[in-house]
């Protein structure tokens, strides 16, 4: 039997040319488009290997496979702890619920912490992921020539080989190891947990044990798990995290509460209660001064949990923004326009990503999204689109450009945008007349770029840049087409945090911000230092008159900070218990921004601006000093020579099962294995009862070509007896044997993104 066409088929990407090289503890696999990412990843992996294995006193038995892929505009990391492999998508994570940290040193440490901690907690090693207890029952069958009726009951109960709740698995992966700082408790994590605490919405101990939540629920499992894991390490000792994993490896231990009691001396519920009490006391005390003089403006869009990137209409009293209203998950954002005079709203387009931008005539809006269908290879990349209010039609402007965050430049009718390649991001310009794009920057250390914005007064671009921890604000001069021109803005001394006079420019090679201070009359020299490494500055917005407003977390809480270069006045203009982001300034000076409050991002309006004394804002003016002593970023590239990739297989997984089927006990097993980069997979099973009834099946998928070739076979036997009388006199005892054999082969072909 042959079959063609399936409803859901993955793309195999045979166009990718895979290579590999080995380090002391890892096998690194990459395709040509991720080589720089792979070489940085190899350095990171070897650096953190002894720290994590030392913390857990455990090493994987074989070299861990580290796979770097980039077939789509997608960012994630995944640890396959039974396969002993890690898969990293090269594109860096840019997520409104996470702080900004250099991607590879963060995600590789996180995923390898998963590998080691979860292998430490395994009950039966890496070859037996679990077992199954199963029951099948059938409808009653009255015909004598039919064995049994149609199945009406099927129960399959898995017994997992690893029992670690999500909060603990993700919590220890974010904790990483003692004194690790590649990821740490930054202002975003603090904002989400603080907001839940002061609004009485902290997750229960049971809720922390599951994913699948709407809105910010899944991220709250990460956050709460990180906080609780850190609480355990601080209160009971870092080694207790390892000991809990050892306790969970016991074949008879399936309760996290009981495991914590055996290790910590306190039941998990009691530890959780102490943790919650400490959070509520701490956060209510910290925000009480803020609540005396809060400044947040008027919330004008509150439906949904994601209302971000407000952009004023250039001529009308209205604005565009992204929202997930009427959708379930945080990232399911659509593009809306809201008229503030009529209070009417229209949905312009669905599935839009990153900030939109207006044409200066207000009749066209530009935005980024993925196309409805993938390209010929099955890849889905972000591209720039336009929407005309006059024709109500959409036009695609780029194709496979990996373009996001467009910014319209009216002076020369172009669109600046950001794009990603091999984990690095740069600035591009699209000429709307020729429809040709040009790469404008070449940041060799591959920092993370985001939130591009245009300053009409200086004919320049501002953007957020992350080279290590947090964001700084970069500057690109469109006249000279260089990163590195001087831009006046307030400068903060890295030691004291105080504002000083000076200029800022950016290293043309790395894109890192450099501050040039005023001339020192005593030494006759000028001092240089990098932009402040201990707090985050992001989301610059500039008015036509040059007034700058951006978000800053120097006080421990993100608030909007304003700088007026004309009269040199500067200061905070919001004072929040949540956080303020993504400001946009109207011609009349009003400010829209995205306010995080009560578990959601809303759009808020500041009708008028008043400076707030620094002492009243956030936790304290010097709170940023807690963010010090970080490890240096890992930038070195591994130089090992690569060779062509050869198929490799991890262990064959065996999963025992016991089934009660038509009144007989039928023990058996499943087996499964998949090639390391998923080029082929085998899956099968066998079971046998005391009647010598066999159930056998085998499935093979071959994924080296565009279509997936498959082969399936099934073999079932049933043995029964039948008693009858010949001519009504002689007893006849018949042994009846049933045999069912099926062979099936075919191709699974993806069509239009199926």
Automatic annotation (TrEMBL):
InterPro entries: 6-blade_b-propeller_TolB-like (IPR011042). It comes from marine metagenome. This is Biopolymer transporter Tol. The lineage of its organism: unclassified sequences, metagenomes, ecological metagenomes. PANTHER family: PROTEIN TOLB, PROTEIN TOLB HOMOLOG.
């Amino acid at each position: 039997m042959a079959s063609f066409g399936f409803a859901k088929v993955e793309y195999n990407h045979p166009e990718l040319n895979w290579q590999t090289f080995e380090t002391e503890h890892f096998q690194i696999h990459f395709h040509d488009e991720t080589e720089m990412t792979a070489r940085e990843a190899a350095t990171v992996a070897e650096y953190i290997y002894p720290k994590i294995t030392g913390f857990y006193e455990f090493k994987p038995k074989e070299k861990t496979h580290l796979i770097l892929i980039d077939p789509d505009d997608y960012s994630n990391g995944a640890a396959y702890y039974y396969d002993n492999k890690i898969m990293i998508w090269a594109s860096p994570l840019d997520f409104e619920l996470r702080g900004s940290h250099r991607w590879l040193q963060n995600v590789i440490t996180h995923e390898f912490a998963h590998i080691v901690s979860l292998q430490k907690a395994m009950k039966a090693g890496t070859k037996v992921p679990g077992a199954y207890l199963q029951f099948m029952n059938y409808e009653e069958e009255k015909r004598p020539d039919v064995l049994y009726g149609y199945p009406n009951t099927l129960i399959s109960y898995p017994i997992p080989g690893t029992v670690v709740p999500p909060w603990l698995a993700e919590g220890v992966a974010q904790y990483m190891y003692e004194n690790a700082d590649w990821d740490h408790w930054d202002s975003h994590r603090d904002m989400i947990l603080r907001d839940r605490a002061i609004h009485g919405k902290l997750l229960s101990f049971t809720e922390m044990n599951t994913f699948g939540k709407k809105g910010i629920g899944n991220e709250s499992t990460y956050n709460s798990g990180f906080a609780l894991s850190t609480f355990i390490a601080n209160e009971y000792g870092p080694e207790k995290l390892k000991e809990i994993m050892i306790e969970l490896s016991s074949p008879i231990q399936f309760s996290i509460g009981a495991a914590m009691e055996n290790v910590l001396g306190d039941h998990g519920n009691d530890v959780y209660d102490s943790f919650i009490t400490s959070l509520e006391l701490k956060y209510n005390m910290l925000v009480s001064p803020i609540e005396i003089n809060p400044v947040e403006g008027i919330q004008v869009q509150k439906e949904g949990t994601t209302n971000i990137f407000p952009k004023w209409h250039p001529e009308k009293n209205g604005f565009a923004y992204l929202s997930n209203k009427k959708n379930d998950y945080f990232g399911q954002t659509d593009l809306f326009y809201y008229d503030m005079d009529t209070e009417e709203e229209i949905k312009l387009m669905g599935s839009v990503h990153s900030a939109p931008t207006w044409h200066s005539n207000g009749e066209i809006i530009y935005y980024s999204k993925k196309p409805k269908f993938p390209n010929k290879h099955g890849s889905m990349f972000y591209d720039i689109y336009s929407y005309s209010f006059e024709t109500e039609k959409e036009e695609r402007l780029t194709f496979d450009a990996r373009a996001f965050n467009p910014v319209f430049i009216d002076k020369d009718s172009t669109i600046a945008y950001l794009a990603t390649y091999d984990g690095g991001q740069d600035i591009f310009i699209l000429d709307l007349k020729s429809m040709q794009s040009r790469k404008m920057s070449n940041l060799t250390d591959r920092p993370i770029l985001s939130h591009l914005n245009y300053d009409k007064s200086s004919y320049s671009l501002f953007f957020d840049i992350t080279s290590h921890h947090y964001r700084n604000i970069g500057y690109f001069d469109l006249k000279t087409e260089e990163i590195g021109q001087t831009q006046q803005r307030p400068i903060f001394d890295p030691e004291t945090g105080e504002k000083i006079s000076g200029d800022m420019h950016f290293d043309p090679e790395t894109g890192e911000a450099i501050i040039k201070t005023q001339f020192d009359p005593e030494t006759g020299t000028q001092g240089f230092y990098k932009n402040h490494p201990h707090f985050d500055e992001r989301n610059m917005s500039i008015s036509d008159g040059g007034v700058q407003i951006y978000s800053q977390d120097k006080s421990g809480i993100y608030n909007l900070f304003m700088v007026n270069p004309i009269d040199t006045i500067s200061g905070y203009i919001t004072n929040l218990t949540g956080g303020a982001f993504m400001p946009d300034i109207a011609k009349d000076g009003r400010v829209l921004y995205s306010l995080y409050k009560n578990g959601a991002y809303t759009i808020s309006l500041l009708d008028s601006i008043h400076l707030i004394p620094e002492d009243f804002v956030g936790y304290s003016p010097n709170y940023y000093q807690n963010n010090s002593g970080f490890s240096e970023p890992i930038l070195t590239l591994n130089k090992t020579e690569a060779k062509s990739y050869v198929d490799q297989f991890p262990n064959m997984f065996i999963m025992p099962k016991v089934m009660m089927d038509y009144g007989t006990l039928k023990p058996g097993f499943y087996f499964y294995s998949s090639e390391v980069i998923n080029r082929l997979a085998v899956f099968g099973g066998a079971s046998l009862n005391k009647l010598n009834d066999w159930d056998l099946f085998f499935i093979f998928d071959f994924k080296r070509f565009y279509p997936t070739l498959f082969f399936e076979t099934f073999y079932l036997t049933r043995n029964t007896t039948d008693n009858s009388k010949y001519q009504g006199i002689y007893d006849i005892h018949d042994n009846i044997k049933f045999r069912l054999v099926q062979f099936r082969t075919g191709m699974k072909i993806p069509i239009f993104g199926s």
